[in-house]
Amino acid sequence: MSGFDLSGRCAIVTGANTGIGQAIAVGLASAGADIVAVGRSSMAETAAAVQSTGRKCFTVHADLSRTGAAAGVMEKSVALGVKPDILVNNAGIIRRADALDFSEADWDEVLDTNLKSVFFLCQSFARSAIAAQRKAKIINIASLLSFQGGIRVSSYTAAKSGLAGLTRLMANEWAAKEINVNAIAPGYVETNNTQALRADADRNAELLKRIPAGRWAKPDDMVGAAVFLAAPASDYVHGTILPVDGGWLAR
């Protein structure tokens, strides 16, 4: 078996309806995995793209801003008759305001979606894998703000910094149980979450000047790292936060 072959594997991908999640779902399918696409809006486009690779795509509708929904994702996945052994925690939201003005509602919604639900989905997934004595891979989608502070995104920075810490903690606890827990930290990617930044001509120019690669990332730029962290090639990789950022952090 190739070190990057995912044949016979099944991956849960949250936030799979668009952007990074959709790209990773299709990329894992292209490497051989069946997909359980999780989201709160239509995933018909993702399902069609996955199926075009010859792999199966199951869909689970869940609103991960409601933290109780996390455990239900695993229950619904198992009920579909699949045995997921890869989990990609991509679903996330962002709210922007100066720290002096940031609301409690925006704080809670982002932390619940981007951190609390992620932890409990990881927990549910790991319990299932350990009970079945199944090797498994967890890939969290972190951020440059897992390393930096940013501006006007208080809750997002807190959540993504926390996610980096949780990735390391879960790796420490679960590596010996044959569960790899790692994360990808995307740089500035052309997605719905960054539309406001790209529309601001001055801010966009500042960002591009800082990125050595000289361009925004496309969602597809995250696929190679995701396949690596999901595949046998990364079996001895635990607790890493892998930046895919066009060189931003090296600047």
Order of helices and strands: EHEHEHEHEHEHHHE
| CATH topology group | Rossmann fold
Largest sheet: 7 strands, parallel
> Could you name the CATH homologous superfamily?
NAD(P)-binding Rossmann-like Domain
DSSP strand content: 15-25%
Q: Structural class per helix/strand content? A: alpha/beta
Strand order of the largest sheet: 3-2-1-4-5-6-7
Proportion in helices: 40-55%
Low-confidence stretches: none
CATH architecture verdict? 3-Layer(aba) Sandwich
The CATH C-level name is Alpha Beta
Structure overview:
The chain is of the alpha/beta class and 251 residues long. It has a single domain, classed as NAD(P)-binding Rossmann-like Domain (Rossmann fold, 3-Layer(aba) Sandwich). It has eight helices and seven strands, in the order βαβαβαβαβαβαααβ. A seven-stranded parallel β-sheet has the order 3-2-1-4-5-6-7, sandwiched between helices. β5, α5 (154-174) and β6 form a beta-alpha-beta unit. The protein is globular. The termini are far apart.
